[in-house]
TrEMBL record:
The keyword DNA-binding is assigned to this record: yes
GO MF, any single term: DNA binding
Statement: the UniProt record of this protein carries the keyword Metal-binding: no
The organism's taxonomic lineage, starting at the top: Bacteria, Bacillati, Bacillota, Bacilli, Bacillales
Sorted UniProt keywords: DNA-binding, Repressor
Protein name: HTH tetR-type domain-containing protein
Top-level division of the source organism's lineage: Bacteria
All residue ranges annotated as the HTH tetR-type domain in the record: 2-62
């Protein structure tokens, strides 16, 4: 990295961290670096590009810290995940602008969308890896449900700390969250709970998020149909019943491909497929997205 570019990034860190995106100007950063605004544009074509570069550098520092924690052989797996959870909190507390800017910039759309989608995907991926290390491979069928529950709990506590300024102790929160996740995981494994978020669905979702692209309703629907077919093959039922279900799914795919699919036929096929308990959750998700798409 050139000295000028490094100076720009350091100045951007100070200004964006203190003032956020909207209240920071390219002219302020250029003046802080002692260069003309035109010289800054040789390195970054716009304030948006500079903010994204700064945003990416903060993420890299965060994941470097996570890897350092995981590489520490003196820590037990539980101690490491507690520290990872603390690190998660510290990242957002030290970069409060991210939470504010995600809200203000309507991060799901426009120029910033790919960067914020990658941020979400990387956080989910890191959480998944950490939970598998902590809980073991036996939670793999339900891992995405646990990932979402963990991140949901963390997000709400972060909201209380940042937006409500609640005087909470981060270390105590981290221990509390890890305790609850271990309890939930043990209960899920003991009861052999059917997952809400199937691996096949989430892997497709993550692939889109990593490339900075939102998954479309049509892509998600296709992923659910593929997941139905793969699950049918694993069911402990007769080959005749498997053939019936596979035929029903094929008919459903054909009907959905029509310009004007028949709702009555779709309902009947979903009802037939959903009679298998193991397919019920997937059918409910598929039904929701099919009829959402038809009504929009």
């Amino acid at each position: 990295m050139s000295i000028i570019r490094q100076n720009i990034m350091e100045s951007a860190t100070r200004h964006f961290s203190k003032n956020g995106y909207a209240a920071t100007s390219i002219q302020e950063i250029a003046d802080d670096c002692g260069i003309a605004k035109g010289s800054l544009y040789k390195f970054f074509q716009s304030k948006e590009d500079l903010f994204i570069a700064f945003h990416d550098s903060q993420q890299k520092a965060f994941y470097t810290e996570i890897e350092s924690i995981r590489a520490d052989a003196t820590l037990s797996l539980r101690e490491a995940f507690v520290l990872e959870t603390e690190c998660h909190f510290e990242f957002f507390l030290n970069n409060k602008f991210i939470m504010h800017d995600i809200k203000e910039l309507n991060a799901s759309k426009g120029h910033f969308a790919p960067s914020f989608l990658r941020l979400r995907a990387n956080l989910l991926k890191s959480t998944k890896e950490g939970l598998i290390r902590l809980l073991g491979e036996e939670v793999d069928p339900n891992i995405w449900d646990l990932v979402i529950m963990y991140n949901g709990i963390v997000r709400e506590f972060i909201f209380l700390l940042i937006f409500e300024n609640k005087p909470l102790n981060v270390r105590e929160i981290a221990f509390y969250i890890v305790d609850r996740i271990e309890e939930m995981a043990a209960c899920i494994v003991q009861k052999k709970t059917q997952p809400i978020l199937q691996n096949a669905i989430m892997n497709n979702y993550m692939q889109c998020e990593m490339t900075g692209e939102s998954i479309t309703i049509a892509e998600y629907r296709t992923s659910l149909l593929e997941n139905l077919l793969s699950t049918v093959k694993e069911l402990s039922i007769t080959n005749f019943r498997k053939a019936e279900l596979s035929d029903a799914i094929a008919l459903l795919q054909e009907e959905l491909a029509n310009e004007y699919p028949k709702s009555v036929l779709i309902h009947a096929l979903l009802g037939f497929i959903g009679k298998e308990h193991e397919l019920e959750n997937i059918v409910r998700q598929l039904e929701r997205y099919i009829f959402w798409q038809q009504n929009n």
